[in-house]
Model the fold of this input.
Amino acid sequence: MKRRDVLVSALAMTISPSLAATEAEGERVVSLDYGLASTMLALGVTPTGVVSLKNWDEWVAEPRMPPGVIDLGTTAEINLEVLVSIRPSLILSTPFLAALDGKLSAIAPVATFTIYAEGGEALDRSYIETLRLAEILNRSNQARRFLADADAFFDRLKERIRRFSPPPVAVINFVDQRHARIYGGPGLYGGTMKRIGLENAWNGQANYWGFETIGLERLAELDEGTHLIAVAPLMPSDVFSRLQESPLWTSLPFVRRDRVSTIPGVLMFGMVQEAMRFAALVADKIEAAHR
Amino acid sequence: MTNAFGRFGAPTLSALLLGLALSLGLLEILPELSHLTDTSTGYDAKRLMLVYSTLPRMATALVAGAALALAGTILQQVLRNPLASPTTLGVSAGANLALVSAMLLFPSLSGLTRDGVALLGSSFAALAIFWISAKHGFSPFALVLSGLVVGLWCGAAAAILVLMNDQYLSGIFIWGAGSLSQQSWAVPFSLAPKVCLLAVLALLATRPLLLAQLGDAGARSLGLPMKWARLFALSVAIALSALVTSAVGVIGFVGLVAPQIARLVGARHMISQLTWSPVIGASLLLLTDQMIKLLSPGDFIPTGAVTALLGGPVLIALLPRLDIAPRALPAPSQSSTGFDPAPTVAVALIVLVLLITAAGVFLGRSPDGSWVWLPIEAWDQILPLRTPRVIAALGCGLVLGATGLILQRLTGNEMASPEILGVSAGATTGVASALLLFSAPGLATQLGFAAAGALMVLVLIFLISARSGFGPNRVLLAGIAIGAMLDAGIGVLAASGDPRGLALIRWMAGSTYFVDNAIAGTALLISAVGLAAALLLCRWLALLNLGPETAGELGLDVRVARAVLFGLAALMTAASTLVVGPLSFIGLMAPHLAQGLGFRQPASQLWASASVGACLLIIADWAGRMIAFPYQIPAGLLSALVGTPVLLMLLRRRV
Done:
């Protein structure tokens, strides 16, 4: 916690005064990133527009996006004409959309938030960027409360989990019958597991988005006590029944002991809200299986 | 064609290759072998990996490699075409596209009907290229060119599906890139019997095929139903490629390279070809897979994409062996002696360009989705966003239309187009490198890298084609071969599931989205300069159309003229690719529409073709912004959807 506090205060000083001074009331803030949008909701600000709104329910699910928010089209091609006509007062963006900065800043001031990039942990950065976002939106008090709640929430989960000795956990996304993405490294899932005291069974490499594509056979490298969590989006509907045909899969210790759980969609490239949702879903599954 | 390898003989080389591949495999499993016998310890991850992953993976490599090599051998023999293979004929890509579509539409069905779907796809691809090349007596050139085009298009169509469903990105690319990763014996065990059955059928077809080596005339005099024998053998080859694609995805070029090696080391006859090239193919694929595991342990690199990367240069090296008849005389319809339509048609065309440009700028949809003619009060808001896109589409359309005409006249080939030069694929590779080197490259960086990539391919094409005296058809084939190879490289990147892969597919989709005033202005400037230069060089085009000899007699340095015109075309292609991506096919369609309007003289045809190109691209851009509003479809993809059927029709009419 201490390290994060230092970072936060250091960052607060670097926020440009013009942005920090803007009023949140009556503002029309659009978010070009799911994680930033859900953080806005956590701070009590409803975005005027969001990208890929129609896929929100599958990938983010919680929190629900209130009605009346305008769909800005795909992340690949955010519809600038729609964006300009809803007259935003502030655009929230990420380094991933850097190529668009020139066009965006002609429409409204752009604030860029870095969660997923080289050299940093997604969860730590989410805390920092939540505070920075709050500063810009004049919601610093809400943000401090929100983050304190999140910390308390994580601590409670950590305590709960510590009572039974939790197994190492591996989190995957089935891509097809033979391949998966496995989560770890500096990503949100990996960081959250660390935060609530769960050991990540995957110690292999992962990109800064926090995943690595693997052939399923590499699951055999995982610790024998591992509990496997599969995240639902992308999962081919027949994957588990088809995997029954694979002797490797059926011999995996966690498959034999029935330590495989599925959780619904949680944005893996999200921020603190998503970390909380993920932590709760995983903790429930682990607790149910190992208490 | 005797050479140094000849005396080693095919059996020796096959044994050497297989020995090398197997010993590499043995090297991998040797430390784990003790786990095989020791079953006492209960759960043993190493044993599990060895028995259910490493060994079946090796078996899969051997079976798939042998099957592809066998398919390649049959195709090369039956079609008497040294470049025929499941990859170069687009058969694997067809199977892949069918699988991708099926997986998107019916995710749960794919497991049961996978082989059937793959077979359907590869049969469609094969039917398309046979239908196209039937008119040309299945000439080697017609087959390979149409095959590569079908292959590229299937790749593009798969990219469209990915872009529309971007969450499926990684899965589809892993499939398309051919991963050999296994967790059971299911794949090798189900693939091997099917391949064996087809191998027996292939042997049954050997007798008539042997006679086919004597030439059609000889076989027909023996009263054999040659057509049916060929069809039967081809079906076997197509089924083999489809089954492999269905089991492990697209494994590029093994089917091309293995029979070539077999022939190179002395396996000339049908029987020895059919015997040794599967052994070589199996060894090659296993060798590649073992090398990948050895060189980058732990990384996820799909084997099929790597074989495609390695195979591309082999294809280019083989080009000189392809018998391409020099094209001395221009096609009659390309003749420059016809009359132009009345000036009113030309004026009407220019008015049409202006009208469509205006409509592209002013006709649109408001945020609630309703159609509006842009009201004046919204001008200062919307026009700065919309105008650069329309202007860029105008400029690039002009450039592509003109470039297409230059290339078609230059090559005397109605299906030449900038996309097929491979320069656009070079630009794409440049962008890929920028995305790899920097975590979030800006637009200027991306553009710079794209230009560098385009230029590199341009130089490469120049070097390759200079050897053949800029023989027009060879340039096209070299270009499209480079394109296929670069596609494979992009496949490796995209299969890793990195979100940057999405940025790359976006680039390939060819959107005017990132165009700003500077780019739009540049596009317009380039189109003006390029068109002016092209109009000045029109006399050369007219002279070249009389045939190289006549042109030479009339005082034209044919090589210089061709080099200059190719250079101009390539530069214009590079510039337009930076804006609308590698796959618009505008340069292909525009000259034909211009000709359909009756323009025959080089200069007026050039101007007309450029105008038509501009109209097409503006319409594609506009439609892409409107169809799924507020979601946008890139102009390049939309025009490719229309352009490819046009291309296939043209391929059939004349290659």
Remarks:
- Confidence is low (pLDDT under 50) at residues 1-25 of chain A.
- Chain A touches chain B through 66 residues (CB under 8 Å).
- DSSP finds 13 helices and ten strands in chain A.
